[in-house]
UniProtKB/TrEMBL annotation:
This is AB hydrolase-1 domain-containing protein. It holds the Pfam family Abhydrolase_1. One of its GO terms (cellular component) is membrane. InterPro entries: AB_hydrolase_1, AB_hydrolase_fold, AB_hydrolase_sf. One of its GO terms (molecular function) is catalytic activity. PANTHER family: HYDROLASE, PUTATIVE (AFU_ORTHOLOGUE AFUA_2G14860)-RELATED, MONOACYLGLYCEROL LIPASE. It comes from Tsukamurella pseudospumae. Gene3D superfamilies: alpha/beta hydrolase (3.40.50.1820). Residues 24-142 form the AB hydrolase-1 domain. It comes from the Bacteria.
Length: 276
């Protein structure tokens, strides 16, 4: 279905429980360049007893593109999740955020704790000291122009290869062209370009809004199974994020960054355990 969320027609997929409902609904948020179908295997496991909601941010999946001149902000994505719950008449839900979407899930929990039944950060982005960025108007104008130039010269053609390299799920055949579209390329380009800004917005929000201690939260790190300086550093960062959020810490292994694709059973179990 397409729902008007935060001013953009947003693709939403709702799968009801196949048996008696055993807990609050779950909202699955993909990371950078992620789509609803990346969660197919996790959804199949969760819907034994849960309602599962998946959404595509603007430009991804089957959602409308970003409106002209618009860029992702922390506020836009918190509003999108709030509007989603309102549209589906859900009082609250377990919010799951993969990678960069962890920013949005944490921000939502800080802004709307009563509507957050639980939070799961899945191999989330960690930015304790976000880097400096250009002033807003100049930065966004350059970013928007660069996205248009990239699409004009055909950079959207690398979408399928980039998705495979990131370890994403293979799209259903009828949706294979999503990864080649201008809208998909521009969405990923804009979100990646806005990454340091979103990180700074979250850091500022952390200073303004405490995360209530009553929200069950899990931070799960993906680990490939081979100890290296890089993997050790990443696990340390993820544990630090868990400490910051007063969250349970878990490791999903062996897994690449796309843990929902590599280890759907482990991911589903963590989601269910968070509010059990």
């Amino acid at each position: 279905m397409l729902l008007e969320l935060a001013g953009t027609r947003t693709h939403v997929v709702v799968d009801g429980p196949r048996g008696p409902a055993s807990g609050p609904p779950v909202v699955l948020n993909s990371g950078l360049a992620g789509n609803w179908f990346d969660w197919d295997a996790v959804t199949e496991l969760l819907t034994v007893g849960r309602t599962v909601v998946r959404l595509d941010r603007p430009g991804y999946g089957l959602s409308d593109p970003w409106p002209d001149g618009a860029v992702p902000t922390l506020g836009s994505e918190v509003a999108r999740l709030r509007d989603l719950l309102d549209a589906l008449e859900l009082e609250s839900a377990v919010m799951v955020g993969h990678s960069m979407a962890s920013f949005y899930v944490e921000a939502f929990a800080r802004e709307h704790p009563a509507r957050t039944a639980g939070a799961v950060i899945l191999d989330g982005s960690v930015e304790s000291s976000p880097r400096w960025v250009l002033p807003g108007d100049l930065r966004d104008e350059l970013l928007l122009r660069s996205a248009d130039v990239g699409a004009a010269v055909g950079m959207n053609r690398v979408g399928p290869a980039a998705h495979r390299m990131l370890g994403g799920a293979t799209p259903p055949p009828e949706y294979a062209d999503i990864l080649k579209s201008d809208a998909y390329f521009k969405a990923a380009f804009l979100e990646n370009g806005r990454y340091p800004v979103l990180a700074r917005e979250l850091a500022a929000l952390r200073g303004r809004r405490e995360l209530p201690p009553g929200i069950p939260t899990t931070v799960a790190a993906a680990y490939g199974g081979h100890r290296t300086p890089l993997s050790a550093s990443w696990l340390k960062e993820q544990r630090g994020l868990a400490d910051l959020l007063r969250a349970r810490y878990a490791v999903i292994s062996p897994s690449g960054h796309q843990a929902m694709v590599d280890q759907p059973a482990q991911v589903a179990a963590l989601v269910l355990d968070t509010v059990s």
